[in-house]
Description:
Low-confidence stretches: none
Number of strands: 5
Number of domains: 1
Mean pLDDT: 97
Strand content: 15-25%
Shape: globular
Distance between the termini: 31 Å
Structural class: alpha+beta
CATH topology: Cytidine Deaminase, domain 2
Bound molecules: tetrahydrodeoxyuridine
Helix content: 25-40%
Largest sheet: 5 strands, mixed
Amino acid sequence: MTVPTPTLDELKRRAREAAAQAYAPYSSFPVGAAVLGSNGEIYAGANVENASFGLTICAERNAIFQAVAQGVRRIEVVVIYTPTPAAAPPCGACRQVIHEFGPDALIVCCTDDATVERRYTLTELLPGAFGPDHLAGRR
Ligand code: THU
């Protein structure tokens, strides 16, 4: 997937902006994500933690669920922003959710330092993924 630079810049801006709204009092690790839907719209989300730690939701899933709740079913690009020295890739749970809506998605992990940006395809991050097709005949 090739994404125009202005679109990618906007996705990064929205992801960074979303991280400012993260609720991360337990980890002090704010994450922001912005996804590009097949409709050309951008949806953003941040991680939201809970005193019952396991209920925490990651920024990526929050952003994707925002898109899905607005009727989007296909995600083209996922941008993840962390205010860290190294770019952070999506966790395993988020990789699985990205696979559901964006098996061919481009994933861009960015920080405040443009030189440490990392790009992946979902296939690289989750080879051999389980997905909707594997349920064929059981639905
Ligand atoms: N986190 C994300 O938001 N996305 C990821 O892909 C990795 C982890 C959040 C969850 C938790 O609030 C904090 O980062 C530390 O794990």
